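Pipeline run #58 for the internal structure catalog. This entry was flagged by the ingest filter as a single-chain record with no existing model, so it goes straight to prediction. Upstream metadata was stripped on purpose; only the residue string is passed forward. Reviewer on rotation: M.T. Logging verbosity set to normal.
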Amino acid sequence: MALEFSVVIPAYNEHELLPRLLATLDIARSRYRGGLAAIEVIVADNDSSDDTADIAQRAGCRVVRVAKRCIAAARNGGAAAAAGKVLCFVDADSIVHPETFNVIADGFGAVAVAGTTGVHPERWSLGLRVTFALMLPVIWTTNIDAGVVFCRRADFEAIGGYNEDRQFAEDVEFLLALRSLGKGRSPRQRLVRLKGARTLTSTRKYDKHGEWHFLVEAARHAVLMHLRPSATAAFAQQYWYDDR
């Protein structure tokens, strides 16, 4: 089943890693049996101060400028400009699988209301393996994963897109809303984790902060949420938005 895709890439100062993602998207587009022209790529430039937008334009992408420094706003801004029937969201530090769009098209034809391709880190270490192992029970239970996140435009609009009041975990909330939407439909239309097209993601946070930092920060953040809720916003700003 051939579909028309719009790929939305939220990007803030992604001079270093955006080119490798765009190169792998070109390969995946060329492999799509519906034809390369059926897939548009939109870079939602989230007020970058480097040449992220220029890189995207030279690569033939549409560039949408989103001034509000919030990844949910960037995703929504890109989606608002999209023309495809299916919206795909992928982070700028990713590497997509060559068969990504064929696998997503097959998934839609079989069971999906929406879903993800799943993700692997670009390298492994003991800390990364333990972190991923601890996440697996939640992923298996909920079908909520990362990588390329996809849904029909109509369903995106039905749930109101990404929550721009959230500075982080907006992707989890988004998938939970899509899963709830699917539960009210046919048993064949559910949130799915596809097989055969996992996305590679950068480990730059681990390179900078250490192999075990995510588990430590997750525990610290859980405590902060209960003792000092106001510290949550400051933590998110420092870890996700200021850390370049």
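catalog note: Residues 5-204 form a domain with the Spore Coat Polysaccharide Biosynthesis Protein SpsA; Chain A fold (CATH 3.90.550.10).
catalog note: The chain has ten helices and ten strands.
status: ready for reviewer M.T.
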